[in-house]
Amino acid sequence: MSKVNYNNRRFLFIKRAEDNLSDTIFYYHQDGDVVWGTYDGGTVIRGNFLAKVDAEGVLDLRFQHINIAGEIVTGNSLSTPEIMPDGRIRINEEFQWSGDNLSHTSTVEEIRE
Fold first, then answer.
1. Are 61 and 71 in contact (CB under 8 A)?
2. Cβ neighbours of residue 110 under 8 Å, at least 6 residues apart?
3. Structural domain boundaries in the chain
4. Largest CB tally within 10 Å, which of 1, 49, 64, 69?
């Protein structure tokens, strides 16, 4: 079982150099070592993802979404969690767009109401 539980958590982009996705919110769910969810907002109309999580909480993730330009975007990510001092989760992502041989990074942080 993973040391990180992603179930019913929400995350918001805090760092992503190539896009302004600060209004994109991710909704995570987890059952055992399977994690899935949806995301929308900012430049994303609707997206979803599916991942396997390892014992350390690292996600091997696949994603797809439709952006405001009407394009279907897909890719994969290796996402490493970090527990912040206040108990929230920060996820540091190394990802690649499908058809792109470049490595990109982004960071999301858990949001609470």
1. no
2. 9, 10, 11, 88, 89, 90
3. 9-111
4. 49
Token pair for 69: 């330009």
CATH of 9-111, one of 3.40.50, 1.10.357, 2.40.128, 2.60.40: 2.40.128
Q: What is the pLDDT along the chain (113 residues), one digit of tens a residue?
A: 678 999 999 999 886 655 555 689 999 999 999 999 999 998 899 999 999 999 999 999 999 999 999 999 999 999 999 999 999 999 999 999 898 889 999 999 999 87
pTM attached to this predicted model: 0.91
CA angle (106 as vertex; 103, 108 as ends), nearest 5: 155
Q: Tokens 């960071």, residue?
A: 107
- CA neighbor of 26 nearest in space, from 1, 59, 56: 59
